[in-house]
Amino acid sequence: MSYDTQTPQAPQVAVRNGLGTAALVLGIIGTVSGLVPPLFWLAGILGLIALILGLVGRGRVKRHEANNKGVTTTGAILGLAALILSVIGAVITITAVSATVDEINKAVEDSASKDPSSTAKGDADKKDIAKGLAAGDMAAYDDLKVTVSEAKPYKPREDAPGHTKGNKAYQVTVVIENSGKEKFDATLATLNARAGKDGVTAEQIFDDNVGTGFTGTILPGKKSTVVFAFDAPKDAKTLSIEVSPGLDHEASQWELKVG
Q: Which of the chain's ends, N or C, has fewer CB atoms near its CB within 10 Å?
């Protein structure tokens, strides 16, 4: 009596190649994204996922749960490459953005320094105010331009108010130009003067030719010109003229040579 004996077959294990395939696809997309610096963030995310999936997929290959060793290895390598490219892209992007911001800031600063009207309302150029303007220099505000001429000898009437016998008199021409878009009330403009190294008050002289001051309004694009005269000690070598265009404008000073 004979018996047929059969050797039991080992159960078949299902092949699980999905992780390796996913690693390859994500690795390719991540690497391509890494070639475009602004997409460094996408390359970094996809590269990290591809690397992890590739390493896990290789583990499955070693356990004979998958048979796509080449695909998983390639996916892991591409994932690593995408990570490296993402770092390079981040450096390039950050550097480019920083350089652009610096250029914009520099352009704004250059524009502000060249355009006097970009200063805050009522503020003339700070550097000029600190040093004192010279004859013929202009103090520029956002809506006005003020100019004071050189000081010239002036012969007042003998009984002219403000003039002291024995002193000298000097005249200056002041021009206010309305560079704004609205009319300007010139009656608010005031002048003060000091003479010599001691800075004594130089009295304003009033006679038939000088002393009237600014009157009325100045229309946009128009100018108003007034001649003023000041009394100064005969040994004075300088005459400081301070012009305040209005209540909303900071006063500017001119240092004039006399004598």
A: N
Categorise residue 99: left if φ over 0, alpha if ψ from -120 to 50, beta otherwise: alpha
pLDDT tens digits along 102-151: 989 888 887 766 554 444 444 444 444 446 799 999 999 989 999 999 99
Q: Looking at the whole model, is its pTM more than 0.90?
A: no
Over residues 228-250, the pLDDT tens digits come to: 999 999 899 999 999 999 888 88
Q: 97-116 burial, b if ≥16 CB within 10 A, otherwise e? A: eeeeeeeeeeeeeeeeeeeb
Helix axis angle for 69-114 and 18-34, nearest 10°, is 30
Whole-angstrom distance, CA of residue 163 vs CA of residue 208: 13
Q: How many Å apart are CA 234 and CA 110, to the nearest integer?
A: 45
Cross-strand pairs, 122:
none
